[in-house]
Input
Amino acid sequence: MTDLNRRTGELAERLLASKYPVVFTGAGISTESGLRDFRGPDGLWTRRDKGLATPEQDWTNVEPNSGHVAIVELQKLGKLAFLISQNVDNLHLKSGIKPELLAELHGNLTKVRCVQCDFKMDRVEGERECPLCGGKLKSSVVNFGDSLPAKDLEVSYEHSQRCDLFIVVGSSLVVYPAAEMPRVALQAGAKLVIINQGETPYDTHAHLLFSEAIGEVLPAVVEKLKGLMKQG
Output
């Protein structure tokens, strides 16, 4: 048995035993869809820090990959209590995640929100006023210096405190306050799993660690979980 095989099996067993698993995703989960991450070996900020060009992201025709699909499978198996994401690419919703199980801490490129009542809706060309209160609509994407959406942040803290298993997928865990969620989960007694190609400040606190590609890890974990559930 390879070490990766052993660890994917261990994560499947932890998921099977978990009563309240929460997944937390960062830009790394979308790299296999053709989007760049930020702090990976060829990430946007890595390139910037090296004085290299940082090409524009092409958000058109981007599709969910096997990592996104694996999380949807967890949802179908009843093994996803909640999903917290730092991503704005809409790939989680596109893959089939239920909106009520998702907090998008940094917004969503396809949605706008009302600056007055915080109502959120799909972006519609030419739509400038909130249909509820008449307030101004703006992009829901959170720019540097902006406050995170209060409701999404609140429910993220809530679910992090309630979980017994917290799985980080493709995040360097250095952008706050989003990166506080693993700490909140650990303080609540949850087990921490990190799947990320690159070090994070929480690696020494993780109960299980993967540096392999997400597409190698999550689909294998889901298949093993399905096998365990059939046995049960």
The longest helix spans residues 214-231. The longest strand covers residues 21-25.
